[in-house]
Amino acid sequence: MQLLLDIISGALLAGGSFFILVGAIGLVRLPDVFARMHGAGVTDTLGAGLFIAGLMIQGGLTLITVKLLLILVFMFFASPTSSYALANAALSQGVKPWTADDPKYDDPEPDDTEDGPSKT
Amino acid sequence: MMFAAATAALVIAMLLALVRALLGPTMFDRVLAVNSFGTKTVLMIAVLGFLAERPDFMDIALLYALINFIGTLAVLKFFRYGNFARAGGRAPEGEGD
Fold first, then answer.
1. What local confidence, expressed as pLDDT, does residue A103 receive?
2. How many domains does chain A contain in total?
């Protein structure tokens, strides 16, 4: 029984780690702020969700699991709110979303500090 | 063992978030990267509690999640209005909140 729980929680932790890594790679590789928020969203929802689910199985029916559930619920409210605030602030302060018309469309390298799509 | 592997994945993801925070190029990229770093820190504290077999670290993780959210909103508000106290004194036109 304990072995089965360990296997399940290990699989959930591995899945969570995978999505966290994918989100972090997206955060570095994607072309502008709005696209990068997509990568951060993967980390905040599926990554954190699977990760905390894996830890909850390890915690068992204790107060630790309740606290982990509280973290998860709070994160599911806070992540969309802060994403909305960030996107709203970026749009209203003049960041242009990256589009297919951009000259760097065929070469979406993220090191566009000078002439990239995301002007301040 | 699996906690150590999960911690290693989190450390790599946190380093990538730091790379984005250093590269920028706009302020919003940095805020996004720091917010994402904070999320990963919450998960890191939680998994370190299990790794050290002291799962009462969960209180700290919960507190850090709250601080991370408020901190993101505070930084955004500060860079928009120039201070934390006044609401909308120098907002751009048509942007009330």
1. 62
2. 1
B50 vs A contacts (CB less than 8 Å): 55, 58-59
Interface of B with A in 36-55 (CB under 8 A): 36, 39-40, 42-43, 46-47, 50, 55
Which ipTM did the prediction report? 0.79
Q: Is position A68 within any domain?
A: yes
User: Please, what is the angle between helix A63-92 and helix A48-59, to 10°?
Assistant: 170
Q: Is residue A17 part of a domain?
A: yes
A33, B28: Cβ pair inside 8 Å?
yes
Joined tokens for residue A116: 């990239």
- Distance set, CA A97 to CA A16, A20, A92, B77 (Å): 29, 24, 12, 21
- Which structure tokens are listed for B12? 């790599």
Domain enclosing residue A40, as ranges: 2-79
pTM listed for this prediction: 0.81
